[in-house]
Amino acid sequence: MFVLLITYFTTKFVGSYQKGMTQNNSIQILEAMKIGNNKYIQIVKVLDEYYVIAVAKDNVAMLGTLSEEEAQKIKEKKAGNSKQFSETLSEVMDKFKDKLPKK
């Protein structure tokens, strides 16, 4: 029983410590969408800049940047849940269609 209590409190401490570390960072993931096995598209805020990136198992690629206004629209839609992220992402990706590699 004693071991379980120690394990519980240690886990709580480590969890709260890691949560505090991620909240104070200058990098935030605003949105993420899984598009395949170990493949994601994310909207990331770094300081005051917003980036759209593709994340795969062994690769990260920048797809483009967002303006403050575009990022604000995404935040408002996220808060209001008026659209699914996939719809919002489709709108953002339309902006970058000509820059994406063709298969």
General description of the model:
The protein is an alpha+beta fold and 103 residues long. The protein has helices at residues 2-23, 68-80, 85-96; strands at residues 27-36, 39-46, 49-55, 60-66. The chain has a 4-stranded antiparallel beta sheet. β2 and β3 (49-55) form a beta hairpin. The mean pLDDT is 80.
How do the helices and strands line up, and which of them pair or pack?
Layout: H1 2-23, E1 27-36, E2 39-46, E3 49-55, E4 60-66, H2 68-80, H3 85-96
Antiparallel strand pairs: 1-2, 2-3, 3-4
Task: Please outline what is shown here.
By secondary structure, the chain is of the alpha+beta class. The protein has helices at 2-23, 68-80, 85-96, and strands at 27-36, 39-46, 49-55, 60-66.
N/C terminus separation: 58 Å
> What is the H/E string?
HEEEEHH
Mean of residue pLDDT? 80
Order of strands across the widest beta sheet?
1-2-3-4
Share of helix among residues?
40-55%
Query: Which segments are poorly predicted (pLDDT under 50) over 5 or more consecutive residues?
Result: none
Give a quick account of the main beta sheet: strands, pairing sense, barrel closure.
Answer: 4 strands, antiparallel
Shape: elongated
Query: Number of helical runs?
Result: 3
Radius of gyration: 18 Å
Structural class determined from secondary elements:
alpha+beta
Q: How many distinct beta strands?
A: 4
Strand content: 25-35%
